[in-house]
Amino acid sequence: MSRISSNALGALFMMLSMAGYVINDVFMKLVLVDLPLFQSIFLRGLFAAVLIFLLCWFMGAFKTEQGIVHALKHKMVLWRILGEVMSTYFFLEALRHMPIANVTAVLQVLPLTITLSAAVFLGEKVGWRRYGAIILGLIGVLIIIRPGAADFNVFAIYALAATVFVTLRDIATRSLPSSTPSLLISLLTAISTLTMGAIGSQFETWQPMEQSHLIHLLGASGIIVVGYIFSIQAMRVGDVGFISVFRYSALIWALLLGYFVFGDVPLVIEIIGALIVVGSGLFSFYRERVIAKTASQKPT
Fold first, then answer.
1. pLDDT tens-digit profile of 213-258?
2. Ramachandran assignment for 147, one of left (phi > 0), alpha (psi -120 to 50 degrees), beta (any other)
3. Helix, strand, or coil (residue 110)
4. What is the per-residue pLDDT for 206?
5. Which end of the chain has fewer CB atoms < 10 Å from its terminal CB, N or C?
């Protein structure tokens, strides 16, 4: 597969995963109005795990050359599980108490945090311009969450914590061997989150479910599978720096669904902050393209 086609495919996977995640967020936000957090996580994870198990069975994902156990023994699988479980907790806690567009806007700093993490942990070279873009992006996030404002709460910090663990999840995903099927990783992801939900729900009072809750949870379970599978595929195809930019499509989904489903109208200052975050990320992407082009033109 050529470099261009790989990047195009990765970008498509990323946009599909962002659509899946945001639509899932809408379903979960509707459920969390009435049901406890861990009960909701457990039930969504249970339904999703059953669905992914069936997909694995029918698509032959269990028939790996090295065997399932060997495929999942890679140390990065454990780091990915940690990132997935913790990001799920922090994100959904933030989502319960914040407008969906605000939480999603905070997560748009991810292309920058991934760039920074690649420099620190993977030794990738990052120039001062891209470091400046990272700092500017963080300023944009601070504008969105507005520490010290009357409506500021600790759950804005939870949204930031979620970005840290999503970064860990995606860097770990990038490091997984290509021989490990994406469906198997998705199944392990669902099992790990439902396990967290099962443990946490022991400390909650379970609430009876109505038909609307079941419909929303089934919808969330089905669409989160789309997010799981395509987010894994996206991080395994093409250039991370190119593909990560397409995370910004989530902000469009969140703004539209936040307005039409919940009636959330973002403040002007929040829109400005989101534009700063997106703009800094796009500049970082531009610099990466310039550096790559310059490197390719150097005589060997």
1. 999 999 999 999 999 999 888 888 767 766 777 788 888 888 889 9
2. beta
3. helix
4. 95
5. C
